[in-house]
Design goal:
- The structure is a single chain.
- The protein is mainly beta.
- The chain has one helix and 13 strands, in the order H-E-E-E-E-E-E-E-E-E-E-E-E-E.
- A hairpin with a 4-residue loop joins strand 3 and strand 4.
- The longest helix has 13 residues.
- 28% of the residues are buried.
């Protein structure tokens, strides 16, 4: 059965098209640095005066159903060198299980990323970068996928550059999750190891886990990895896949992404 992907409706694409139409000028400020495709976000702030769009598709096979997510759209811009605004338009979801099929839009999200510490450019302990991300979902999604409440989220991310084109990034997070009947605390954390394979390609391997407040869900850990490739300094492709290491099975995912940045016209 084909999923009813009417995600090309103007409701989904009107904002990205508006942005691309009015701000189409490519920028030149080093290479693009994205917050995808891993679970953790990076410490990097988008350069001031630029707009960055990150998007993707992911297929997930979960214990009770299969899920397609198209969009994963994140809009990033920075009014200051250490402060970034973030608007998550997220995805159009289609879910299929043994009983029914359903589809709709996820909640949007709104947030900030703040650079707390800027490290040295040379590898080693002095290269430490630290950033904090504060976001919340907005109850804008379809009935089947909306939390109908704000869901605050906080993440602290660190990274160090290591010899041999390696980098290590530990992270931790907190989310106030909303269900139909209640709200509960969810904690997350993990570490990501990345390596630059060349001037334009890279590989990452990531381990992370999430732990829900007692009686609100099982603790689950994941291992995922992927590749990134720079088509140009402003345009990136990515591939990723991952597998749950605990909890009910099957539980795995795979996806592809595309990111692009450009200078905003004055």
């Amino acid at each position: 059965m084909k999923y009813p992907f009417h995600f090309l409706s103007m409701k989904f694409i009107s904002i990205p098209l508006f942005i691309l139409f009015f701000f189409p000028t490519p920028c030149c400020s080093g290479q693009i640095s994205t917050d995808r495709p891993g679970f953790a976000n990076g410490t990097t702030i988008v350069p001031t005066g630029m707009l960055q769009l990150e998007s993707g598709y992911q297929f997930s096979r979960l214990p009770q159903h299969k899920e397609h997510a198209l969009g994963q759209l994140l809009v990033r811009t920075a009014p200051l060198e250490r402060l970034e605004f973030r608007l998550g338009l997220n995805s159009y979801i289609a879910t299929r299980d043994q009983v029914k099929n359903q589809s709709g839009f996820e909640d949007w999200s709104l947030g900030l990323k703040l650079k707390l510490a800027q490290g040295a450019d040379t590898p080693g302990i002095k290269s430490l970068n630290v950033s904090a991300i504060v976001e919340t979902t907005l109850p804008t999604g379809s009935k089947a996928y909306s939390a109908n409440k704000l869901q605050p989220f906080v993440m602290l991310v660190l990274d160090w550059a290591l010899p041999g084109n390696l980098a290590i990034s530990p992270f931790m997070s907190y989310t106030l999750v909303s269900s139909q009947s209640s709200q509960f605390n969810e904690f997350g954390g993990g570490v990501s190891l990345s390596v630059a394979l060349s001037g334009r390609s890279g590989f990452f391997l990531e381990y992370y886990g999430v732990a829900a407040q007692s009686d609100y869900g099982a603790d689950i850990s994941y291992l995922d990895g992927g590749l990134t490739y720079l088509i140009t300094d402003n345009c990136q492709l990515d591939l990723h896949s991952g597998q749950a290491l605990s909890g009910k099975t099957p539980d795995y995912f795979m996806g592809i992404g595309f990111s692009y940045r450009f200078a905003m016209k004055k």
